[in-house]
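User: I've been trying to design a sequence by hand for this structure and keep getting stuck. Would you show me what you'd pick, starting by listing the structure so we're on the same page?

Assistant: Good idea, let's start from the same input. This is the structure you sent:
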């Protein structure tokens, strides 16, 4: 669309110019409803970072994992074990025929790529979940990805198709309420429960953060060798270039930064866990 192409790449304060360009390009029919909530790009390439943490948990517990994700949006990262990864240095992980392919350059030590990563359950919550089976919601989510990033668009589209076909549906819920409810359930023996999230913690109110942290500490104190609990998060610490990937594992209440990664999952600086 020429009117919009003339404004790319963006520079300075473009509010009025963008309004005029959108009006011209869309004949005045600006999709106002799409602007009612914050953008959700649901960056599936972050699965390339989370994968290392999930493999680490699987290696250390020897158990299948029950994944619980907050800020899950369309639930794309809940399927991290279903994708094919190019990890650099001729290292790969995942089924060759997987429909979703992610390139994530792992630098330094490698996670335990030979660990048996088995997923026993997937559940997610979001304050405004995206239904990957709804064409309008899919289109809205994809519209927030820059049009000059065709690989990212294709990857997100493939992940949306996978999530639509395999579920699970993401629950609309407050993150603290949802975590407290999940952790109040009796943990099944022989399953490692994993709370995970990526680049969303900063958007939560402090009270919500406090409640989630308190719920995890309380549940972790009750974790045993047959009912371990893990907290895996890729969240900002103020560095604009990378974010730490932190893992807390109970019993033991041990927290370690097992890597640092680009916010969009393009590279990972891994550390032995």
């Amino acid at each position: 669309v020429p009117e919009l192409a003339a404004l790319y790449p963006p520079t300075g304060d473009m509010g009025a110019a963008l309004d005029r360009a959108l009006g011209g390009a869309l004949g005045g029919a600006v999709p106002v409803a799409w602007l009612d909530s914050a953008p959700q790009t649901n960056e599936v390439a972050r699965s390339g970072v989370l994968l290392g943490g999930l493999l680490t948990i699987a290696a250390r517990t020897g158990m299948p994992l029950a994944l619980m994700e907050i800020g899950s949006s369309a639930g794309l990262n809940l399927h991290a074990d279903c994708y094919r990864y190019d990890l650099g240095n001729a290292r790969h992980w995942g089924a060759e025929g997987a429909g979703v392919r992610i390139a994530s350059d792992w630098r330094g030590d490698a996670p335990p790529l030979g660990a048996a990563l088995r997923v026993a359950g997937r559940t997610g919550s979001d304050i405004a979940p995206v239904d990957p089976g709804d064409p309008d919601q899919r289109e809205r989510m994809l519209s927030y990805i820059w049009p000059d990033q065709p690989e990212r668009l294709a990857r997100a589209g493939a992940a949306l198709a996978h999530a639509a076909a395999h579920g699970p549906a993401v629950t609309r819920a407050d993150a603290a309420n949802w975590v407290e409810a999940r952790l109040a359930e009796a943990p099944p023996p022989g399953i490692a429960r994993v709370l995970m999230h990526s680049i969303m913690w900063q958007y939560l109110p402090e009270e919500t953060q406090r409640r989630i942290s308190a719920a995890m500490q309380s549940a972790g104190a009750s974790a045993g060798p047959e009912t371990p609990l893990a907290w895996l998060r890729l969240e900002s610490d103020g560095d604009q270039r990378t974010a730490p990937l932190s893992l807390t594992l109970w019993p033991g209440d041990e927290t370690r930064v097992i890597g640092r990664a680009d916010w969009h999952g393009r590279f990972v600086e891994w550390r032995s866990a």
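That's my pick for every position. To get oriented when you compare it with your attempt: The chain has a mean pLDDT of 91. The longest strand covers residues 242-250.
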